[in-house]
Design brief:
Length: about 160
């Protein structure tokens, strides 16, 4: 190939690479939930009863093994997980939105005794079955997994988290 041909080939390759290049931002993680399936928070949600320490028993996406929720009064909730503290406001039953932000945490289901819950983010990047420490139950875990599936998550992708 002559000098002009090599230059043209290099130019085309550079243009193709430039066209495929990102704008410097990390790619968005894949959605793990079918966004066409409507979902919402549980009407059973009670911020005072939900407050406390939870252990993740099963997860889709990136989830903290331990998470704690503290009621701050009114509709404010502090979520602590893996050294990250984030304050949410309860905007509807089971729907928590970060203060001054757009991240939404959805509590889709919680059992009557507030021992097991199905939670996830509205963006479809993670979901989890969480339990109070030492209070896991196969029946409640199965119910939480069914709720996640019903709400558009691929429950087959749930991975068990070892305590």
């Amino acid at each position: 190939m002559g000098g002009m041909g090599r230059w043209m080939c290099a130019f085309i390759m550079a243009a193709l690479l430039f066209g495929c290049a990102e704008d410097g931002l990390a790619p968005d993680p894949p959605l793990l939930r079918n966004p066409t399936v409507p979902f919402g928070g549980t009407s059973r949600f009670d911020v005072r009863r939900f407050a406390g320490d939870w252990t993740t028993s099963a997860c889709i996406g990136e989830c903290a093994a331990q998470v704690s929720y503290a009621w701050l009064g009114g509709r404010k909730v502090l979520r602590q997980a893996e050294g990250l503290d984030r304050v949410y406001e309860v905007t509807a039953p089971g729907i928590l939105r970060t203060l001054g932000g757009d991240q939404i945490l959805v509590v889709m289901w919680v059992d009557e005794g507030f021992r097991t819950a199905a939670v996830g983010d509205a963006d479809g990047r993670w979901a989890a079955v969480i339990d109070r420490a030492g209070q896991q139950s196969a029946d409640r875990t199965r119910a939480a997994e069914e709720i996640l599936d019903f709400n558009g998550w691929d429950a087959a992708k749930l991975r068990k988290i070892k305590e």
